[in-house]
Amino acid sequence: MINKTFTLHHENHDRDIFDFKYVYPVVSRRAGGLSLGINLNTNNACNWQCIYCEIPNLSRGKPDPIDVGQLSSELSHWINLLINSPFIEKNCAPDTKFVDVAFSGNGEPTAAIEFHQILIIVVEKLKQFNLINDIQIRLITNGSFIHKNLPSLDLLSEFNGEVWFKIDAGDSDSINNINQIQSSFTTIKKNLKFSLIHSKTIIQSCLLKINDEVPSNYFLDDYIKLIKPYDKDIRAIHLYSLARKSHQTSNLKIDRLTDFELEKIKSYLESHLETNIYTFP
Ligand code: SF4
After folding, report:
1. What pLDDT, in 10s, does the model give residues 227-252?
2. Residue 100 CB less than 6 A away from ligand 1
3. Domain range spanning residue 174?
4. Which end of the chain is flanked by fewer CB atoms within 10 Å, N or C?
């Protein structure tokens, strides 16, 4: 099946180039290497509809039932290929390393009822390949179902896994506009708190230029106000901007922030927060 030479790089996150249903390799700037992604949302359904989302034909909803046996075989196949063949040397930039298995699909992974079962499979596979202490397990999530997945967070934590929790704004108008949801702050805070108690948690924030305006200090002050009570427990904040083309329609014009604009925001946040902040321009 894999007979062509592809160069995987961070601007190409096409999950279909290798023709597998659930598991795909991707080079991730934020993970810092090759990430084996697990897509539980093969129907492109998410409970959110972020205006910057790069998923084509995104719909609101839940994932289709998952063929757990197929997913498990695909995972074995890919791990074996990454560690026992020259796949990485052939397809990635020099010195690229296999760094994580990440639940990062075309929608919210924790919306899948099979999520915990699949997390157990990931742990078992990493043990089987003697990688459990070397390869991170990451859950990339919008956080909205965290309260229903506490045993999964505990399992993640047992194997030093991480939750990357999406917070793109700190005021309800911006959250409504950017993530296109009507979530209450009580719910967001409750889920963030659960995440922090149960797992190592990193905040991931996609910041945008909206209608030609960079995020204002008012916007950033609201963001700081939301984060501040949890500042000491958050492991890090990852700031990034539009990396690839959005596939969503919106009446808002969105653009990528420049490296300079992102760095300026980082400095402003650093003057108010203690947690480590990293930019991924
Ligand atoms: S939460 Fe993620 S998958 Fe869902 S719409 Fe937002 S960016 Fe897309």
Report:
1. 999 999 999 999 999 988 888 888 89
2. no
3. 23-280
4. N
